[in-house]
Amino acid sequence: MNFDFAQREQKLFKELNDIMLEMAGEKNLEEKDPDNAEKSLRESLSRLAETSYLKLGIVLDENIPGLCGMMGAMEIVSSFSQSLYLSVEMSTRLFGRIVSTFGNKEQKKKWLLPVLYGKKLGAVALSEKSMNIDNDPMTTSGVRENGFIKISGAKNYVINGPIADFTAVAGIIENKPAIFVIEKGAKGLITGKQLATMGYDGLPISGLEFDECRINECEVIGPFEDKSTFDTLRMWENQIIIGGSLGMMKASFESAKAYAKTHKTGGKPIIAYQEVAFKLAEMLTLFQTSQLFAYRAAWAADAGSRESEVLTYCAKVFCTEAAENVSGSALRILSGEGYLSGNAAERAYRCAKYGQIAGTSTEIARVKIGDAALGA
Amino acid sequence: MDFDFTKEQLMFKQEVIRFAKKEIVPRVQEHDLKGEFDFESFRKLGEFGILGLHFPEELGGGGADVITTVLAGEALGEAGVDGGLTLAYGAHTFLCADTIFRHGTEAQRQKYIPKLASGESIGCMGLTEPDAGSDVASMTTSAEKKGDKYVLNGNKMFITNGPIADVAVVYAKTQPELQHAGISAFVVEKGTKGFSAGPSLIKMGVRTSHTSELIFQNCEIPAENLLGKEGDGFLMAMQTVEWDRSALLAPFVGSATYLLKKCAQYAKGRVQFGRPIGQFQATKHKLADIRIFGEAARSLVYRIAWCKDQGRPLNHLEAAVAKLYVGDWSMAPTFDAVLIHGGYGYCHEYDVERIFRDSRLAPIGGGTSDIQKMIISKLM
User: Fold this and answer.
1) Chain B within 8 Å of A273 (Cβ-Cβ)?
2) Strand pairing partners for A215?
3) Domains delineated in chain A
4) Most CB atoms within 10 A, among A17, A52, A356, B116?
5) pLDDT tens digit string along B111-151?
6) Contact B295 A314 (CB under 8 A)
7) Are B292 and A310 in contact (CB under 8 A)?
8) Which domains does chain B have, with CATH numbers?
9) Which residues of A fall within a CB distance of 8 Å from B289?
């Protein structure tokens, strides 16, 4: 047992914190204007590539932290900007991991390396209009034709969809699950309008349509024998959401704590009132419990524990609900200050809801945890 | 980071579960219903080595590390041992015996620890008073030095094992004007003139542990019964927090696992509307919440234990976070368990009713949740 982060992890955390602080000082990391947001995102990717952050969970090297360290690092990036965090994670941790785990040597060279070096941006298209990935069949499909694959279908809510250089599209080919990698500008790839969302102000997100979109056979990852590959993708997505939730809690808590120590009423800082102090104590309790939960689930995944899947579901439910709770409490402490757009707690509160519906939704996760208890 | 236990630690945990299921659990419900302390189980805990697990072997202990000791507590909860017995064990081993072990002279250790480790003697700790709970410094029990004796006067309240204890570690003021710094700790033996225990209090839960008042009326004890130095008492009491936030919380973690198994078993067998209730999503959600609580609490508790094994000073903020989380959040799973069992859950026949009552102590005992919030908010 060891509850400490190793030196290499501490080093990465410091590097990340310094870079994020610097970037936050230079620009608005939640930039809403699509052009500026893309420029900012690509610059940020290059900066993050100076550290081992983009390689976490992908490159196995003794100098690169494992999944516990990945969680700690995710918390730092997310605490500065949830939009930047999610864009980077969907590109690197989800798209990158797909190519790294399931792709062949050529595919890795073509798609993975540019993503790991922060030069290109990836996206992953999973959800469909009538699809719950756990229960319903996927409709996006590919057909072989003259050495090419012709893809038809549509995907919803694709993060980085409007700007990604490479998009991994989950679909079916010859009745088997597969992943089609479509490069930006491919014929038949129709990018929908950027969607306006409740949170994640600067996040490029859209639907994608594939109108007989043609790719080369070598741009297919798979096909796979069963859909367990997509389950793996969901678990990776869940890890991203867990890490993001930690960052939201950190940002909200720190914002509320700083305010409570400096804002005075009745001649004393509001933290001197038990109503405020105790609320902060509850927030910190949820935050610290979430951190340990996230680290343990990540550790279990790293160790290949058979409990890993259910622990990840448990951690996801706990951390995403705690994120809403903590950011909501922060808003009450911050009062009018927190209600202003741009406050860390206000932003986190709007983003927190996403964590409960994305990846394995809170409801589905609870069913799966219950099934595990029942031995189903 | 590494959240794994050693193979030996896990094997030991399984042994404790097997032992407890066979030797203790069969009598739990009966004793709870009668509100009786189970002396036989307590003796068996001693025989098995749990009561003195972390003490050195030369004092009759098992020489175990803190993690192993905490795992034993978790195992008791996981086996289905009631909160009354685990509370009695906690008060005996960690609040009484460990204080003597840590702060006593070699003579005091030799005199008390072997008997406490074996269960031949039962220990308790007297800190709380009728008008001094969380506010320890306002205690009024006094200890006046007279020659080679101390004379104790005052009352202690809500003392676990009070009516059955052979040895009590008692906190009293030797210099009242110094507040915290004027508190000292003493060992008081059963039968000492002027020392008595009140009748066992009737409680909502943890009924198999006996709780009472301790009364000191011109109670004379030898001066050599002072633990450590005069004025060290408050620090000694605070040091028990390390155990309180690890070993004493561990049974709640184990109990969540026990509840989950019991509820899953019931949900698989109980058929309504033509199918087992476990097939309904609402039931699965409750099972999930029980599991989530247990997993969330586990790491908090083991973090405190691990730090203690590393010889680190207690991080009071982390300790308070662990206590607050387990205290406040441990009640919901027991409520869910009762709901899953429906009418049966409301009856004593199914032990979820007892576990529900036992869990009510979690946000009160060992420092209320409000006190934990006070600590956290001061340290943050």
Assistant:
1) no
2) A149
3) 7-116 (1.10.540), 122-221 (2.40.110.10), 228-374 (1.20.140.10)
4) B116
5) 999 999 999 999 999 999 998 887 888 999 999 999 999 99
6) yes
7) no
8) 7-122 (1.10.540.10), 124-234 (2.40.110.10), 240-379 (1.20.140.10)
9) 366
Q: Given pLDDT bands bounded at 50, 70 and 90, which one contains residue A134?
A: low
Secondary structure string (H, E, C) spanning B52-119: CCCCCHHHCCCCCCHHHHHHHHHHHHHHCCCHHHHHHHHHHHHHHHHHHHHHCCHHHHHHHHHHHHHC
Q: Which helix (H) or strand (E) holds B49?
A: none
Contacts A–B by Cβ distance under 8 A: 138
As given in the structure block, the two tokens for residue A117 are 């070096």
In chain A, which residues have their Cβ closer than 8 Å to the Cβ of B303? Answer: 3, 292
Q: What is the pTM of this model?
A: 0.95
Q: Which of A228-232, A308-312, B86-90, B102-106 has the lowest mean pLDDT?
A: A228-232
Q: Which of A4, A274, A376 sits opposite B1 (nearest CB)?
A: A4
What does the pLDDT read at residue A226? 85
Confidence class of residue A133 from pLDDT cuts 50, 70 and 90?
low
| CB A163, CB A191: distance < 8 Å | no
Across the interface, of A257, A282, A295, the residue whose CB is closest to B1 is A295
Q: Which of A6, A278, A300 sits opposite B377 (nearest CB)?
A: A278
> With bands split at pLDDT 50, 70 and 90, how would you rate the model's confidence at B325?
very high
